[in-house]
Amino acid sequence: MTSAFAKTPEKCVSATFKDEKKLQDAVQRLLDRGVPKERISIIGRNFQSEARITGFLTKKDVILDGLASGALYGSLFGSVLSLLTGVGVLFIPFLGAVVAAGPLAAALLGATSGALYGALGAGLGSVLMSLGMPQEKAAIYQTRVQAGEFLLVVEVPEEKSGETFLLLQSAGGEEIATTDMQIPREPEGQLTGSDQLSPEIRADLSEEAQQTFVETYNQSLNESPEKTNALMKAWERIKQLFDRDDKGIFSKRKAN
Asked: How many domains, in total, are found in the chain?
């Protein structure tokens, strides 16, 4: 990693690609240029997978079913997704189930992305606007992803935004833009309380179950810094200890 990328990113350079091969080429060229994979995000509907993936309804269902594992997606997708971090599947209104990777996917799928969850209900364009992308460009990106194209977002220091723009252009990117959009990172380290859980997760857990979730999540982080693994272990613990009540909330402690 170059020293320039150690700073907080100041600009986002984004583009759409009509086919996965061009997208993969662009990502590979970014990586070869020294852009860390943790700064590259992609969203799309039509990734070529080796297995048919159906039935995903919400990000909670994905995590609850243990499907948010990067290792799993590495085996399902032998494509560009294997180059990036934080791969997951989520349901977005007007788009349906989409595959996302990178920091944008982590923000949308994470345990503490409550602010984004509200925007997600109104579609991808609303999410992008909530992060600082101009409304006109956000609307175009939503329309293009809906039509089957892929969105690529790269976070770079301001002084590297020009060369990144040209790289995406030469790789076949369209609707290229440089914006002040900022993708939020989850708080580093442990959760301080259940108030840091997203509204979607809290809605499915009683207060006791929320506390169990936080304790298990933090304990898992102590053992390994991998947040996705901590999320999955927390949900596994909930399913071990609680049953759903008639409202679908994990609130009924199982008998020992």
From this structure: 2
DSSP-derived secondary structure for 196-232? GS-HHHHHTB-HHHHHHHHHHHHHHHHH---HHHHHH
Residue 231: per-residue pLDDT? 74
d(CA 4, CA 218): 32
Q: Does residue 30 surpass a pLDDT of 90?
A: yes
DSSP character for 205? Answer: B
Please check whether residues 200 and 174 belong to one and the same domain. Answer: no
Q: How far apart are CA 129 and CA 181, in angstroms?
A: 8
Does this model's pTM top 0.90? no
Give the pLDDT confidence score for residue 103 in this predicted structure: 85
Amino acid sitting at position 211: Q
State which residues form the domain around 213. 194-253
